[in-house]
């Protein structure tokens, strides 16, 4: 890893305090337990996992909406030290921006597109005149594939796909280097999804953006990701180059997750690995490997300690003590 | 896109106004209310030209003259005169000025204060919220007129103190309403997006959140308007509000109450006009609420 990372996260964790009732103690929910990764310019890092695995918490920590409970976050050489409820410092706002899942909630219903796009400039670029701001907003709205006359309209006049384009335009107004995409297309129609993904791809090429792409849609991830992190219960269980992870999933959870993706090939016979049970309650985490209660390979050793995230192949790291068995089982079924 | 190319371009201010008007005028009561209030406002504005007499002029030769449809009535005093010979119609016309402007001031003061406190409470939560809501609960716990009376007694009777007292009494409704809407909107993603763009507390509160919380506040304002008229009249009736000879509706009622048996007109007409105005404002407020509430919208 000789290149300079745009963003590097080391042992990031985010815990929430849950107030107990009058008869119970306050509890801690560990939404994000231990995430370490690096992000490089022009790369797309995908974070996948089922609902409640901490993907969105990761997004909120990376975009400095919330401070991490522990761990270190370095963005473009700046160490992020943020207090609860604080807005991100000025020099970092220009680096990271976020696109939310729901384009119906992320645009202010009472503001025109122009006002929304100009707001970041107004707050961060004191040197720009009103005319220049308007010009920049106009240029950006064309860049995301809308027409300049759309700029004076209100959000309710746009479709979901158009709204998401507006959200993308707003996020890009400050020329960030990193865009955190929190399920950016899962609220959209399939045909619109493709358009928005193409747009994101074009913008990445044009501006050299790095994406943190959070999704539970594996076919989308496979198409656009360079690297992938598979998360379970707040921690990465498998990380590595997307192509390698998708062709040879090594962690039993990854295997089960990927086997649930539909494949458009009627001749292909495949075995679906059904996961038993529910993800464990974050208020009562199981001992040892959190996946052990649902894992088909689990042994008594699994409950004895957290499995370390070991490098098992070129760039691929897996947190499982039975990797070899999992691999063998996978090859046998493939 | 098809909707955008139709002539009634949605989203323009004119379109919003048109759709608002469609919903508002669908309720006949609201329409009647609005027309009535508009008439009262015009009368109040044109009072010096419309009133047949000076409202403070006392005609000693015509004490307690009955209205024109009585045998003893005369066209000179259409609605009769009060105990000191002042023309009731003129006093009602000038009284509209006082009642409306005082109520408008009261609503303005309590709405401004209520929005500010409500925004603070809903935005910062924590101890700020606790302090503000507890104080408001205390204000709410008093019967409103009693509290207003007490405040006026402390501040010395008069128009200004009556306005302040009633504004304070109305404050909790605005605070609670604003706080509730702010809490509902605060965690929406557009607010987070604004924060990430670098918006500070003040900008988030007043520029981002407030415009999205206005609809229920506008409705509450019309409802408070009618309560303010009543409360001002009540304070006037108890002699703690407007001081004579100002022709305020409540004060007129109060001054005439000893003649209720012998000269009903001196009491009836101010009472009637207060009743009608309050009723009409409430009707208008109901219509406004229906027109502004997206859930009531018929597509």
Automatic annotation (TrEMBL), chain A:
Transmembrane segments: none annotated. Pfam families: ABC_tran (PF00005), oligo_HPY (PF08352). Residues 7-258 form the ABC transporter domain. GO terms for molecular function: ATP binding. Keywords: ATP-binding, Nucleotide-binding, Transport. SUPFAM superfamilies: P-loop containing nucleoside triphosphate hydrolases. CDD domains: ABC_NikE_OppD_transporters (cd03257). Gene3D superfamilies: P-loop containing nucleotide triphosphate hydrolases. This is Dipeptide ABC transporter ATP-binding protein.
UniProtKB/TrEMBL annotation, chain B:
Keywords: Cell membrane, Membrane, Transmembrane, Transmembrane helix, Transport. It holds the Pfam family BPD_transp_1. Residues 96-285 form the ABC transmembrane type-1 domain. It is a multi-pass membrane protein. The chain crosses the membrane at residues 30-51, 100-124, 144-169, 213-242, 262-285. The keyword Lipid biosynthesis does not apply. Gene3D superfamilies: MetI-like (1.10.3720.10). It is found in: Cell membrane. InterPro entries: BP-dependent_transpt_permease (IPR050366), MetI-like (IPR000515), MetI-like_sf (IPR035906), OppC_N (IPR025966). Belongs to the binding-protein-dependent transport system permease family. This is ABC transporter permease subunit. It comes from Kushneria aurantia. The lineage of its organism: Bacteria, Pseudomonadati, Pseudomonadota, Gammaproteobacteria, Oceanospirillales.
